[in-house]
Each structure stands twice: as structure tokens, then as C-alpha cells.
Amino acid sequence: MIRIISVYGLVAGIIVTTPMLWHWLRLQPGDEPFGSMLVGYLTMIVALTMVFLGVKRHRDRALGGVIRFLPAFGVGLAISTVASALYVIAWEICLSFGSFDFVAHYSKVMIDAGQAAQAESFRTMYANPLIRVSMTFAEIFPVGILISAISAAVLRNSRALPARTPS
Fold first, then answer.
1. Tens digits of per-residue pLDDT, 21-73?
2. How far apart are CA 167 and CA 155, in angstroms?
3. Distance of CA 61 to CAs 55, 74, 156, Å?
């Protein structure tokens, strides 16, 4: 099970972090970041399909094609945790090695929207690594919880995508 969690979590992490690293590390000061939250969350959903595949693999190979909801949900959460940790690491790399100042850009967006006090509060809060890491983890992990729950609900039924027997 540890191998499945590691492999599928790593693949999910690579899928979600590659576009992020490519995008944010290429930005220069003064550039406008492109994309949207929709694109970001769609990338997360695509990456976290590895949760479904990992739970199915565990069910079919290690458990003979049968798994209950909670064990399936646990495997899904573990895969999501690995992917989320890689997402956090990638974001910290973007902040540390990228030329683009995300905090300044986001603060400017808030000030332009008439939220100057909140912008200063955000700047102070985001400077704390524990808060920043927690906020970044909270961007992706709830998506992982949702996909883990859906995967567990579907795959607890042994007739849903049953394991193929070699012919």
C-alpha cells in the first residue's frame, strides 16, 4: 500500500506542479500572470485522478477486487496528502527562485479593489511560512478530500470497474 500511495501521489504531484513551475518561474517583474483559478482547479482535478486510479489499483491487486469505503477513503487521502505536499514545495520554489513578486502583485490587486487594510494584513500574514504553507496546502487538499470520497464511494462497489483477469 505504501508503494501505491507513494507512486500515485508522486505522479499526481508532478502533474499538478509542472504547469505551476513552468508558469510562475518564467514570469518576470512587471509581467501579468495569466490563467485563472478555473485552470488551476481543473489541473488539480486532472492530477488527482491518480487518487481514483491508486485506490482502484489497491483494491484490485492487494485486496482481490473488494474494498470498503473507509479504507478506500484513507488510501485516497494519503495519495492526496503526497500530491498536496509536492504542490506546497513547488509553490515555495516559485516564491524563492522566481523573479515575480507574488505578494506585491496580489497586494496591488487588493488595493486596486479598495481593500488596502486587507492587503497589508495579507502581506504580514503571508510572510509567516507556517501560515503560507497552510494556505497553499488548503488550496489543493480539499479537492483531494472530495475526489477521495467520490473514489471510495464508487470503488467500494466491486462491480464498478471490476478487475480484469488475464485471458
1. 998 888 888 777 777 788 889 999 999 999 999 999 999 999 999 999 999 99
2. 23
3. 10, 17, 14
